[in-house]
Amino acid sequence: MNVPTHQPFGIFGQLNPPLALGLLRLSTEGRPSRDDAIALIHLAFDQGIRLLDTADSYCLDNSEFHYGETLAKQAIDLWHGPKEDIRVITKAGLVRPSGKWIPNGSPKHIRQSVDASLRELGSEQLFLLQLHAKDSRVPFEETLAVLAELQKTGKVLHLGLCNVGPSEVRQAARHFTVASLQCELSILARKSASDGMLLLSKELGIPFLAYRPLGGYAKVEKLEKNKVLVPLSKRHNATPFEVALAAVRSCGDNVIPLVGATKTTSLLSSIQATKLVLDISDRTALSIKYSFDADPDAAAAIQPPTKPSALASLLPDQGPSDSPEVVLLMGIQGAGKTELVQSYVDKGYARLNRDVIGGKVDDLNGHLEKLLAEGHKRVVLDNTYPTRVSRAGVIRIAHQAGVPVRCRFLQTSIEDARINVVLRTLDRYGKLLGPADMKELTKQDPNLPPPIALQRWHDSLERPEWDEGFSAIDSIAFVRRVPAEHTGKGLLLDVDGTLRTTLSGEIYPRHADDVMLLPNRRETLTRWIEDGYSLFFVSNQSGISSGKLSQADANGAFQRTIDLLGLPVQEVCYCPHPAFPVGCFCRKPMPGMAIYLSRKYKLDMAQLVMVGDMDSDAGFARSIGARYFDASVFFADSASGGA
Predict the structure, then answer these.
(1) What pTM was computed for the model?
(2) Residues 38-58: pLDDT tens digits?
(3) Do 557 and 445 share a structural domain?
(4) Continuous H helices in 477-624
């Protein structure tokens, strides 16, 4: 992991006072006038504050995107002090449609937003860009990659993260040096302490920007009569708010409270709080009710304890045995853990699985502790375990009982896992399921994770490492067994933009009379049929779910397309579900339609060919390992049929 040189405030250098002024409340609903906001910012500068925290999305809505950045620039331009000392922290990754806060981590949006931020801040390079939030609709790896790209091209000097957990930080560190972390932290909200983010920032030696250090303006009044804060405030001749802020500041030398003051009195009070020193008796009184310590498993994931020297050794790549061991089977949902775990159960291992026992994965640790205490020295746990913290409890409890831990990592790709979930669905229900059906059936059938669950696992994966305390780490490759009778050759065809267009100029036909076949379709497809390929339509039709297209009209338009082709089409498959977010496995680029057709018509996956005109079509081909042709090339006059 890339780790910066250790300094309490890292890239920010020396700070006096150790505070950042956040511009959120000066830029959003209920904000003061621009003149009043600039006056407050100037007061902060005059009092020694040198960090301004803003974002492209600090505004009322998308119509005034980048308002917070223009406010920062204007305030700096109008100040008569040493402007070169001011550091602007900005963010990208959220948008404000109709005033809502919606994540957007797409590479296109991030690039456009950074270019606009540079323009609005009047800078050739952003000093610090932080990812504002993780977008569940975009693979995290794609977002991280574009951030690294922007740094390499010189548009950004330093990169940081907001509102994430330790696993995302470690994932980001594989792409770039994480220079800052920004999370909510106050005595009223301590999740970023308990989940290890605060501890991780210390371990990395980087600043931790604590936003809402007083709990946010909606909760700040709760501090005024707090039974712990009031006595301490009287002892220090301070306000309860100042004690609460000092408590956050005392969490570590690298902690920088990020205050969102809109009034002079609040700003001056926050500055005064940085001069308040809490001694050990103060911190003890606070910790009884308000602990800022990391949970044991979170702490162990960041600072693993030493593995007991008396543990028995384990041979590598060994299956069920007669020797004491706790076996942790990890892998993505649909990895194929069920068959492997059965071999352990058959050998007499006690099995712990959340889907069987119920509750959360962490709840299994209590069951493990009980089993080991009762003398069951061979236990197998088959859950997904993507992160260090999810595995830490198992290792800690096993070591306390003097039992070594073996990790068996099923290295099934997300593409294969998706296929496995589709096959499982077809086995149990005989058809592909829509988002609503999946959501309902998952309540009784937890082995049917939606696409987003697989993506989250994939994005959060931290590969097992020896320093976690394992006595053996076995990597198990996934091998798909292909039915011998699957020998057919299939040509999978997207429809709109690939085979047909519309007479009306619409993107897709709303009725059968609006269908027009594109040139050279019949001639080219005839050659492929002569070469032994069967034709199948695979189409996304989200217009049905949005109400723009009836199912009857969609079917009519497909039939009209077949009539115009005059060729045998074995089956028309289409996904009628919403385009975003993708909640089913039948919407391209998910592999559902191909797997369904392959099973029904005994097609050889190695002899599938996909033709389309969009990225989703190309992704669909990749997801099943099919050859892909863009329609413009495939149907060109020179295109030849067959393999």
Answers:
(1) 0.83
(2) 999 999 999 999 999 999 999
(3) no
(4) 521-530, 543-546, 551-565, 592-601, 615-624
